[in-house]
């Protein structure tokens, strides 16, 4: 499989690249800077995305909104819509999005981002990711998309290959912890690329 990976050098993107290449897939990495041998492009530039995506089997969007205190939602939605337009122009239908956990239901009808104690430092980013999910659900019906939310905590760790998959509800363990390593998240993402079992919906992965 030929995969275009937008955001290839981030914590999650770099692990997705390693996992996919380890399984024999061809990965074209894209970053804003063109660093580390990646192609240089802005995700919001539909023409640039289309030119890079042409000839690929799938696109993975693995970017985060700005974390410098500036407005988060606008740039992420512009990037998302640029990618959607770029896929259409390139004739590529498969899109997998590295999403956020904040929009998962922590209780019936209550998103994690809206629960008491959700860290203020991550609220803008969580809301932006949730807004991107809304845009994809509303505007990407002509594409084969999957949005993958991590657990509440995702960080570098072990590649165990043992985890659970869910839907729109936050997954926690018996002690109430919701976590996943970036390495195991990458396994779940590449599994979905290979199997396409969750097309047109959001899934989540956690221990």
Question: Explain this structure to me?
Answer:
It holds the Pfam family NAD_binding_10. The protein has 207 residues and is of the alpha/beta class. The chain has one domain (2-206): NAD(P)-binding Rossmann-like Domain (Rossmann fold, 3-Layer(aba) Sandwich). The chain has helices at 11-22, 46-53, 73-90, 120-139, 182-195; strands spanning 2-6, 26-31, 39-40, 58-61, 94-98, 105-107, 110-111, 144-149, 153-155, 164-166, 179-181, 201-206. The strands form three sheets. The protein has an eight-stranded mixed sheet with strand order 3-2-1-4-5-8-12-10, with helices on both faces. The chain has a two-stranded antiparallel sheet with strand order 6-7. α1 links the parallel β1 (2-6) and β2. The longest helix has 20 residues, at 120-139. The protein is globular. 44% of the residues are buried. The model has no long low-confidence stretch (mean pLDDT 96).
CATH superfamily: NAD(P)-binding Rossmann-like Domain
> Looking at CATH, which topology would you report?
Rossmann fold
- How many domain regions? 1
In percent, how much strand structure appears in the residues? 15-25%
Q: From N to C, what is the helix and strand string?
A: EHEEHEHEEEHEEEEHE
Structural class: alpha/beta
Query: How do the strands of the widest beta sheet line up side by side?
Result: 3-2-1-4-5-8-12-10
Biggest sheet statistics: 8 strands, mixed
**Tally of extended strands?**
12
Low-confidence stretches: none
Gap from first CA to last CA? 28 Å
Shape: globular
The pLDDT mean sits at 96
| CATH second-level architecture | 3-Layer(aba) Sandwich
CATH class call: Alpha Beta
Radius of gyration of CA atoms, rounded to a whole number: 16 Å
């Amino acid at each position: 499989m030929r995969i275009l990976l937008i955001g290839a050098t981030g914590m999650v993107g770099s692990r997705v690249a390693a996992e996919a290449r380890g399984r024999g897939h061809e990965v074209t990495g894209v970053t804003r800077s063109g660093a580390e041998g990646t192609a240089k492009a802005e995700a919001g530039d539909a023409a640039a995305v289309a030119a890079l995506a042409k000839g690929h089997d799938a696109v993975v969007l693995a970017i985060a909104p700005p974390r410098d205190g500036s407005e988060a939602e606008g740039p992420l939605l512009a990037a998302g819509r640029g990618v959607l337009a770029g896929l259409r122009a390139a004739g590529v239908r498969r899109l997998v999005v590295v999403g956020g956990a904040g929009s998962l239901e922590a209780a019936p009808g209550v998103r994690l981002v809206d629960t008491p104690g959700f860290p203020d430092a991550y609220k803008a980013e969580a809301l932006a990711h949730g807004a991107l999910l809304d845009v994809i659900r509303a505007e990407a019906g002509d594409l084969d998309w999957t949005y993958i939310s991590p657990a509440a905590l995702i960080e570098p760790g072990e590649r165990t290959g043992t985890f659970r998959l869910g839907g729109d509800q936050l997954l926690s363990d018996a002690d109430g912890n919701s976590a996943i390593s970036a390495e195991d998240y990458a396994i779940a993402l590449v599994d979905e690329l290979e199997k396409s079992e969750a097309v047109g919906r959001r899934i989540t992965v956690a221990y």
